[in-house]
Amino acid sequence: MIVDGVLAIWCRELQRDDISIDDDFFALGGQSVIMANIQGAFIEELGVEVPVDQMFLNPTVASISAYIESLGTVTQ
To answer: Which domains are present in the chain?
Structure first.
């Protein structure tokens, strides 16, 4: 399931294990370097490239997962 993969990436990159799918990336302390790391992990682990504008428009695990699923190109 995409949401599980996205959540695992966020937990690892934000160095937290208490993230819910509705938590806001920026409220969790997310910033540009972490965002770039997450984008790289999406490519490596999920096989999908997520543009930076979509990261800003979809700042929760739930919303970015829905965006990724809408692409229909995930290799997970």
So the answer is: 2-71 (1.10.1200.10)
| Nearest Cα residue to 66 out of 43, 47, 50, 45 | 50
Whole-angstrom distance, CA of residue 5 vs CA of residue 13: 12
Per-residue pLDDT tens digits for 27-64: 999 999 999 999 999 999 999 999 999 999 999 999 99
Measured CA to CA, the distance from residue 56 to residue 45 in angstroms comes to 20
Task: Supply the pLDDT for residue 74.
Answer: 62
And the tokens for 28?
Answer: 């969790």
Q: Residue 72 has what pLDDT? A: 85
First to last CA, the chain: 8
